[in-house]
Amino acid sequence: EAAKVGACAPSPFDAILDASRELTDGCDVVLYTSSLGYDVEDIRLQATYKEPEEGEKEVCNVAFVPGDSKLVKKAIRKVPEKSLRQVGIKEKDGVIDVAQRLAALNGRILHKGWVLIWLPDAMSTSLPNDATHLPKMSPGRLFAPSARRVMFVDQNFTVTPNSEDVLFLASEMHRKALPERTFVKKDEEGKKHKYKLPDEPEREAVILFNKLKQRKPKDDAKQDGPVPKDEKLSVYEAVKYMVFEVGGDPTQSDPKPLKQQREFYERVPTFVNRDDLRSIYEPVHRYEMRHWVRSRWVLHDLSSEEGRQLRCEWYEEHLRWGNDLDQLSFAHVMARREVERKFARDKPDDHARAAMPKHPELDGMSDAAEWHQILRADEAEGVDSDGNPLALKTMEKVPEHLFDPEEEEEGEKAAETEEGGGNEKEKRVDLFARIMSDKVMLLSRKVWSK
């Protein structure tokens, strides 16, 4: 996936695109992991496969590994000669060489529940940084068109999601419209109070994360435990939580690339939010980093152009800094997009919103705060010399593998009907980035399991 027209560059994944798409053809959801840049001996995660029942979606498990790793060499040696002949491998002078095995068996070997897809020249520690982060952050072209949703799980994650976990999380990327409803809540004294919640529109998430765990350090003078809900995290504090989340030591000084990135983000509000640089007639929409996530796993919706734009912006931003905290880059991208969205949609500015009534007692009755709205591709204002929208980075066109020719033809007919005076209008669903809390995840899982 390229963020700009003509910006495509060669990648180690180019060599396995056909194998990956062929393998995932027919899969509804793909669970995948990646172990690149070193000599992989084994995969820590143990995946499971469940044969889908009638009406259920199929989950496929894929692992991207280096082709010259010990894991692959060991795996291809175990394949019996009978199986080799079945895939068309022929002996030369009574010997089947390694090159033949590597070429013919790619995408055909199962290891710990994962179908292995190996990349050439992907074991070197000099592997480009953009290649190691590509499958996680920008996987739009890696899989077949049938795989609308894909879930990346980090190789060092402590738990491997099973098929039901993956299907549950994939289902949480869509929310049907909710009617007006009544909610009963107990106060501190145990008295019940009824609240009427407004109706909520249908929602579609283009990306799904888990919310960053925020806990005070044990030596905090106040207390050990969760950070209060109304306490905002500074960028410095968020970075420490992120470092701890990925297994680092938050008490140590930040590495130079991370320190530079953090300090840059800390300075952004001092320039963007300054009133002395702003016209008195200009709406006040402040830049605020608040979209703090854990990214040991992430779900992508590959079917929308808006999702592709968000993935590309995140990927580009992360590569600029040269560190492993992609969560920090995501928070900046979302903060910037939040300002753009408010201006593009002419939302009430911060001064007007401060005067609006607030209802803290309604917190926890709805998960609406976990859905962070993003601009649609057609909402961008103005275009550059190449015809690309200015407010959003877009390609010249959506990658061809995301298009279904029949659906495209039907869409053109529908557009012609509307232009001809038809009454039917295309249903527009608002798009979001969803950051799901542990509490909502547990409650939603109970409901989903029923």
Automatic annotation (TrEMBL):
<feature type="compositionally biased region" description="Basic and acidic residues">
    <location>
        <begin position="344"/>
        <end position="362"/>
    </location>
</feature>
<feature type="region of interest" description="Disordered">
    <location>
        <begin position="401"/>
        <end position="428"/>
    </location>
</feature>
<feature type="compositionally biased region" description="Basic and acidic residues">
    <location>
        <begin position="412"/>
        <end position="428"/>
    </location>
</feature>
<feature type="region of interest" description="Disordered">
    <location>
        <begin position="344"/>
        <end position="364"/>
    </location>
</feature>
<protein>
    <submittedName>
        <fullName>Uncharacterized protein</fullName>
    </submittedName>
</protein>
